[in-house]
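re: the backbone from monday

yeah here it is again, tokenized this time
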């Protein structure tokens, strides 16, 4: 397998992995909020925003291959 094919596979894996985690984090933030931990939920949602930006970067990296 050539390097570029490996690179595509690796980036695709990271994208799917990160998207799965984003869903989990959003659910967890809602659970924290329901438990009265709004500050913790806010920090998790901030992390979700940052991670969403990283997903965009991975998509652009994949497109640039």
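seq for it, each position gets an aa:
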């Amino acid at each position: 397998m050539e390097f570029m094919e490996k690179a595509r596979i690796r980036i695709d894996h990271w994208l799917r992995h990160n998207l799965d985690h984003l869903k989990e984090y959003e659910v967890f933030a809602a659970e924290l909020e329901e438990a009265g931990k709004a500050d913790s939920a806010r920090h998790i949602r901030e992390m979700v925003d940052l991670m969403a930006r990283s997903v965009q970067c991975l998509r652009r990296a994949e497109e640039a291959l």
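The chain has one domain: 3-64. The two ends are 16 Å apart (CA to CA).
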